[in-house]
Amino acid sequence: MRKTFVTIAALALVQAVEARFNALDADNARLERGLADAGGRNEQLTIDRAELERTLMMKSGERGKSIADLRQRLTALEGEKVREVSSTYALSSFRELVPLRMARTES
């Protein structure tokens, strides 16, 4: 009788261990699938990041070029404005001098 009891207890223990093993095996399979999915997502994110970095570098270069172009245009416009103001000032000075010279020659 004692042998039967030990056999039944051992059988129950083996079944419990098998159930635990099967549960752990299922968890392991689930975790491996999750890891594979995460690896795939990581690869895609790495690809997306590289693409975004290239786009950002390209946009940065475009912005730098635009800024350089705008600075060049601003410098040209400032030079043009200086010439315009200088010629206006010279013309007004000339107009003031002409009547003075005419008055001197008439006297």
Structure summary:
By secondary structure, this protein is mainly α. It contains one helix and no strands. It has one domain.
Tell me the number of helical segments per DSSP (H or I, 4 or more residues long).
1
Query: What characterizes the major β-sheet?
Result: none
What distance lies between the first and last C-alpha atoms, to the nearest angstrom? 155 Å
Shape: rod-shaped
DSSP strand content: under 5%
Give the overall average pLDDT.
86
Low-confidence stretches: none
Please give the domain count.
1
Class computed from helices, strands and strand pairing? mainly alpha
The total of beta strands comes to 0
Output the helix-strand order: H
Q: Name the helicity range.
A: over 70%
- What is the C-alpha radius of gyration, as a whole number of Å? 45 Å
Kindly describe this structure.
With 107 residues, the protein is mainly α. The chain has one domain (1-75). Helices cover 98% and strands 0% of the residues. The chain is built from 1 helix and no strands. It has one helix spanning 2-106. The protein is rod-shaped. The termini are far apart. The model has no long low-confidence stretch (mean pLDDT 86).
